[in-house]
Amino acid sequence: MMNTSSSHVNHHSFILTGIPGMPDKNPWMAFPLGFLYTMTLLGNGTILAIIKVDRSLHEPMYYFLSILALTDVGLSMSTLPSMLSIFWFNAPEVPFDACITQMFFIHSFGEVESGVLVSMAFDRFVAIRDPLHYASILTHGIIGKIGIAVIIRAVCVVFPVPFLIKRLPFCHSNVLSHSYCLHQDAMRLACASTRVNSLYGLIVVIFTLGFDAFIILFSYVLILKTVLDIASRAERLKALNTCLSHICAVLLFYVPLIGVTMIHRFGKHLSPVVHTFMANTYLLLPPLLNPVVYSVKTKQIQRRIIHVFQRRKNRV
């Protein structure tokens, strides 16, 4: 219980942390982070531009990839302001409401990304199970409805989080563990019971992210069963090859997510550097590497990128 002497004290801002224990090293991270964000925006922007320009890529798979790229851009833009504030301008203080706003967008885009990966698993299942009716099943209207449903689910799931945080008093430390605001990070600074916040966070992880992971796994069980029924070995390999990019994107998202969740729950004894590294990996790595994976593993996108560079080279 919170005592009465502290009940009237509340922080109006949070202090974000750059490199734990080494604030003097923060300026050294400015240019690497700037390069990372530039490459993330350039990579996802290239994917979006190629899909828009090349009519041969106007297929369900690439529409879902466009949604994934937009989500990655949104996730990167959600963390960028506080990262710039700390590492470029040495201004770690963030107003309470701004912190909650950033928290909402980070968690929302994380939920959207998980939902998009489920949609892409369904796309791969339909493409392999019923290739002749692939385009007629996943029409523009269906893809649009799936995208809207994913966004609505994310907003509804994350909507209570700002209110759950705002009801808590923060009368002790206001120093967060990361360079951006996360629900589980801000929650631990409260000087009142956070049981409701913890329970809601656990329910969200189990019934959205956990359920999504199960659906993706189940989809690939069905895909594998379908592929094994194909007589030709070459056709089996070709079918599985169309799933490699999506499998890599799933691993890039869920492996760091599981790591962050486990560390927050059971790794309180670990160094703060470990917590920071895992949290940064979870939020910064997928948006950076997803365009690389799809550019390398998807021949149509790879050819288009090579074609663009060859045209520029010829003009020079």
Give a description of the structure.
- Belongs to the G-protein coupled receptor 1 family.
- Keywords: Cell membrane, G-protein coupled receptor, Membrane, Olfaction, Receptor, Sensory transduction, Transducer, Transmembrane, Transmembrane helix.
- InterPro entries: GPCR_Rhodpsn, GPCR_Rhodpsn_7TM, Olfact_rcpt, OR51/52/56-like.
- This protein has one domain: Rhodopsin 7-helix transmembrane proteins (Rhopdopsin 7-helix transmembrane proteins).
- The protein starts with 12 loop residues before the first strand and ends with a helix.
- It has 316 residues and is mostly helical.
- The chain has a two-stranded antiparallel sheet with strand order 1-2.
- 73% of the residues lie in helices and 2% in strands.
- The protein is built from 12 helices and 2 strands, in the order βααβαααααααααα.
- Helix 2 (60-87) runs antiparallel to helix 3 (96-129) and helix 3 runs antiparallel to helix 10.
- Taken as a percent bin, the fraction of beta residues is under 5%
Spatial arrangement of strands, main beta sheet: 1-2
SSE pattern, N- to C-terminal: EHHEHHHHHHHHHH
Shape descriptor: globular
CATH domain class: Mainly Alpha
Brief synopsis:
It is built from twelve helices and two strands, in the order βααβαααααααααα. It has helices spanning 30-53, 60-87, 96-129, 134-137, 140-158, 160-166, 183-187, 195-228, 233-241, 244-266, 272-297, 299-315, and strands at residues 13-15, 93-95.
State the main characteristics:
mainly alpha, 316 residues, G-protein coupled receptor, Rhopdopsin 7-helix transmembrane proteins, olfactory receptor activity, Olfact_rcpt
